[in-house]
Amino acid sequence: MFLLYLSYAILWISSTIPVANAAAGKSIFILAGQSNMSGRGGVVNDTWDNYIPPESYPNLAILRLSADLNWQLATEPLHRDIDTTKVCGIGPGMAFASSLLGKDSSIGVVGLVPCAVGGTNISQWARGGELYKLLIRRAEAALEGGGTIRGLLWFQGESDTVNREDAESYKTKLQNFYLHVRADLLLPVLPVIQVALASGEGPYVEMVREAQLGMDLVNIRTVDAKGLRLEPDGLHLTTLSQVSLGHMLTNAFLQSQPSSLTSSASRLRMSQKFATHLFSGLFTNLLCLI
Questions:
Q1: How many domains does the chain have?
Q2: Which residue, 84, 91, 171, 224, is most buried by CB atoms nearer than 10 A?
Q3: Could you report the per-residue pLDDT of 218-246, keeping only the tens digit for each?
Q4: Catalytic: which of 233, 263, 264, 280?
Q5: Is the per-residue pLDDT at 284 higher than 70?
Q6: Whether residue 260 lies in the annotated active site
Q7: CATH number at residue 27
Q8: What does pTM read for this prediction?
Q9: What's the CA gap between 242 and 236, in Å, rounded?
Q10: Is position 227 within any domain?
Q11: 205 lies in some domain
């Protein structure tokens, strides 16, 4: 463990200049929701076991926006200065970023913007509320040094499984949240990768899951956490489950990208132009022969 922390210190010291230089072109991802996005992997009885899986090791190409709005080398727990009323552990963010860097060499530096707060329901994320304003403020601050917001990773809803009224209104409130975030960030088709619940605090888990899985807004992908292993509390994902979820989020994000579709469309347009010019030329030559 000492060697691991020593490696963190070395990485931190050696990365001060590269981080400053690399930040301008970063790909920014907002992490929001409640405790399973914040991360409780490895937390049992309000104590984190300090185990960090290899997929969540620090990487000079992965940054996090701190609570005081400064970019720094990303280290676990990502939400340690955001979700401050509970003990944070491993979440999906670092595994997502590491997996993304391994699968898309063009992504550049990844900038993670932690915003999740445990125990919050969807009403608390409504436009005008403190959590919503904090998310928008942090997202805008993340752009000040350059970069592009590439996506919103959202994992929330456990607190809305307690009361039937909350569960019934969940879909409408969640849809409004997505629309408001996109509007206020001036990103009308911002990719949203949401997680369907693996657990809940009350009896209406399936009702909330149905709302999540039935979300039909444009450019929204859903990954299903159902079946992932939980901590002894029966509510929070284990460390290994969070790593698995990180990979799932990466795959969903890459599937949301129009690169292959765009390149195919581009090739089609080029082919159409070539064919138009070719037949135009042939027709002109034919007229000359006549």
A1: 1
A2: 91
A3: 999 999 999 999 999 999 999 999 999 99
A4: 233
A5: no
A6: no
A7: 3.40.50.1110
A8: 0.84
A9: 9
A10: yes
A11: yes
